[in-house]
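Suppose a colleague, Dr. K., hands you the sequence of a protein chain of 163 amino acids and asks what its three-dimensional shape might be. Before reaching for any lab equipment, you can write down a predicted structure in token form. Begin with the sequence itself:
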Amino acid sequence: MEERPEILDLIDYVKANDIDKVVCLEISRLGRNTLEALKVIQCLNEHGVSLYVKNYNLETLNPDGKVNPVASLICTILLEIASMERLTIAERMASGRDQYIAKCRREGVKMGRPASYRKPNDAYKQQYSREIGLLRKGISLRNIVAITGTSVNTLRKLKSIIL
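The predicted structure, expressed as tokens, is then:
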């Protein structure tokens, strides 16, 4: 597993500015999973940087610069609990979604965007007149995105309307 760019930026910043302590409000924010967060902690420790987790008043390095074994154990446990919470939330969300879909199917309710959501073509032409002008000039979709900030999918839809 590769380290995320923001972690590498943090390490570079710590080295360049001679920082000896990084403060983190919540330990679960260090990584997407336990292994990733532990790698961040290990990397900081290897560079002599102590991680201070504010909501637990926990510091990964002792004042003498050695790894605090109790903090390591607690961090691992807290990260596993956070991971378990994320999985539980995902399972609950999936269960609720599945129950809603089943209910809609039982009751014959149409899911998704309402059919009345679509704008008439004239409204699109009026709203995106600049983009249509650029399309008619033969400018590429990517360049129009750069110029106007309009999404590629909207531009494709506009292209199909004007053809």
